[in-house]
Amino acid sequence: MSKQELVVLGQDAADGCCPTLLSAPLDEGTAAELALVFKALGDPVRLRLLAMIASREGGEVCVCDLTPAFDLSQPTISHHLKLLKQAGLIDSERRGTWVYYRLLPDTTDRLAAVLTRPGAPAAPAA
Amino acid sequence: MSKQELVVLGQDAADGCCPTLLSAPLDEGTAAELALVFKALGDPVRLRLLAMIASREGGEVCVCDLTPAFDLSQPTISHHLKLLKQAGLIDSERRGTWVYYRLLPDTTDRLAAVLTRPGAPAAPAA
Known about the structure:
Structural class of chain A: alpha+beta
Low-confidence stretches of chain A: 1-16
Pfam families (chains A, B): HTH_5 (PF01022)
Protein name (chains A, B): Helix-turn-helix transcriptional regulator
Number of helices of chain A: 5
Oligomer: homodimer
Number of strands of chain A: 3
InterPro entries (chains A, B): ArsR-like_HTH (IPR011991), ArsR_HTH (IPR018334), HTH_ArsR_DNA-bd_dom (IPR001845), HTH_MetalResp_TranReg (IPR051081), WH-like_DNA-bd_sf (IPR036388), WH_DNA-bd_sf (IPR036390)
Distance between the termini of chain A: 32 Å
Organism (chains A, B): Streptomyces liangshanensis
Domain HTH arsR-type (chains A, B): 26-123
């Protein structure tokens, strides 16, 4: 997987805004960028980590609170977090002993947008 | 990848409806189901195939119209289409010589929903 972090998806859409997977063919560059993010989401542990980070009151989670939720080693959890970060889904900040993670909602917003059918009603968030 | 086809995602959410990745921790079963679909989207060729199928006027595409758009063999394209179908993203029907593919919008709708922030405005489809 590329080390490059993803900031904006689909910036090269014909009209400069809001491409969607469902309304027009996808150019190779946008497809490669989007695939990187979807691939990061294509693992149950990473999805659970992302949900824990995104749903946390206060908006950030200490890695020390993430690791105990899984029957996995700290290096394995760190590797999954690194892939989420490389995909532009989360960011991290070290403070003292621990690293704290938070969601980058622009990326999930963009994925939700590209998966929304043109003219479809708003996705029903719980 | 599991051969199981995915019909409904996140059916086991606490309230029976509309779980989102971003509003609550994710149980292992839902994470596994969602990961299967995101993994299917984690490839540029599959994303481009899905976009071609989803955006086609009339709602379906002959495999004979998909293959020429890629510098890949027919068996490779068929393999990618099979993974999209196993993930519940597309369906297919054989008529005569050719197989025709169409989007299963319930699955993309569900993905858009789980990626939508609670309280966020509707995803801006192009």
